[in-house]
UniProtKB/TrEMBL annotation:
Domain Topoisomerase 6 subunit A/Spo11 TOPRIM residues, every copy: 178-349
Highest taxon in the source lineage: Eukaryota
Main location group: nucleus
Name used for this protein in its record: DNA topoisomerase (ATP-hydrolyzing)
One GO CC annotation: nuclear chromosome
Catalytic function, reaction form: ATP-dependent breakage, passage and rejoining of double-stranded DNA
Gene: spo11
Pfam families the UniProt entry points to: TOP6A-Spo11_Toprim, TP6A_N
Family: Belongs to the TOP6A family.
Keyword Nucleus: yes
Enzyme class: isomerase
Length: 355
């Protein structure tokens, strides 16, 4: 059904171009503008969502500055059309390496795939284009992949990365008490080494290794839909960490057209809180002064539509603004080498130290 829809929508784009040519008009393509905050509304139940009256970018075929993009979009539409028709799949890497001259960079392909998903108003996975995932997951979780492979995330060494066809996993089995999103791979590996997922209470930990890819966000959402257990975020006490947490919770401007399947508005900020730095007396040599860029990022975060919804988060960010310092999760090691896993996280989770 969805495949038929994609085929029909691509056909109508091509017919539009043919119609323009037959009437001696210049063919143009119209893309929703995915980088503007002006195009996005905020709904506390869904997160950031592209508004219906969004502004658009017009790609003209007769204009030197946009003719390449016009050609790239047509090429990509033809590739997707063939994939959907033949019910086969390709990765974004395949598409780039088959046409390096035309696309010029992998990033161009990545952006255009999202543009087309938005223009055709279909989820990216319906375009039959896959992305290899960089995310990792471990803990009390078993699930079935689309091809029937059973994935068990419980052995401490086997950390499944869901880099197949997006995580359209089913038959999720878990007795986890919570899910914890970990910003960085280094912290994630540390928690694995300490056997964190079984020591405290059964849980699931997941990392997108920094700014999360779509697959990591889909997986967090899938776990929320299936298990309805608390979802916590463990990020650095810096503007970048807060922004990453906001992407999981509220979504991003660039992907706001797919917010309903990517956001988990119930995500709670477990740490590292700016107030923790004072409360725990983290040694000053483990703290880092905010750069000008950090200050700008913090200011921009505080003006975003969703922060007014979170007075507690606002307070923490204002505290960071006043103290003019940030800290990485690793800074807790300055208090004690196993402070994070033996004291900080157990106390936070036991006594409700999240916001």
């Amino acid at each position: 059904q969805q495949d038929r829809e994609v085929v029909t929508r691509i056909e109508s784009v091509i017919l539009g171009i043919v119609a323009s040519l037959s009437e001696d008009e210049v063919p143009v393509l119209v893309l929703p503008n995915r980088s503007s905050w002006a195009n996005v509304g905020f709904d506390s139940a869904i997160g950031l969502q592209m508004s219906s009256g969004h502004t658009v970018t017009t790609i003209r075929s007769d204009c030197p500055s946009s003719v390449t993009k016009f050609a790239q979009i047509l090429k990509l539409l033809s590739v997707i059309y063939r994939l959907v028709q033949s019910n086969s799949y390709a990765t974004k890497r395949d598409i780039y390496y088959n046409n390096t001259q035309l696309f010029g960079s992998q990033r161009t392909v990545d952006n255009l795939v999202d543009d087309l998903s938005c223009m055709l108003k279909v989820p990216r996975r319906s375009l039959h284009v896959l992305a290899t995932s960089k995310g990792l997951i471990s803990g009390d979780l078993c699930y079935m992949e689309e091809d029937g492979t059973r994935i068990d995330c419980r052995s401490s060494s086997a950390v499944s990365s869901f880099n197949n066809l997006e995580p359209t996993c089913s038959d999720i089995v878990s007795s986890a008490k919570f899910v914890m999103i970990v910003e960085k791979d280094a912290t994630f590996q540390r928690l694995l080494d300490e056997d964190f997922c079984t020591k405290l209470s059964p849980c699931i930990i997941i990392t997108g290794k920094g700014v999360p890819d779509v697959n990591s966000r889909l997986m967090v959402r899938k776990l929320w839909d299936s298990l309805h257990i608390p979802t916590f975020a463990l990020v650095d006490a810096d503007p970048h960490g807060i922004e990453i947490m906001c992407i999981y919770k509220y979504g991003s401007v660039a992907m706001s057209f797919e917010a309903h399947s990517l956001t988990v508005p119930s995500v709670m900020w477990l740490g590292l809180l700016p107030s923790d730095l004072q409360r725990l007396r983290v040694p000053s040599d483990a703290l880092i002064p905010l750069s000008k860029r950090d200050e700008n990022k913090l200011h921009s975060l505080l003006t975003r539509p969703y922060i007014a919804d979170q007075p507690e988060w606002q307070k923490e960010m204002e505290l960071m603004q006043q103290s003019k310092v940030k800290a990485e999760i690793q800074s807790l090691a300055a208090i004690g080498s196993d402070f994070l896993t033996a004291i900080y996280l157990p106390n936070k989770l036991r006594y409700g130290g999240w916001i």
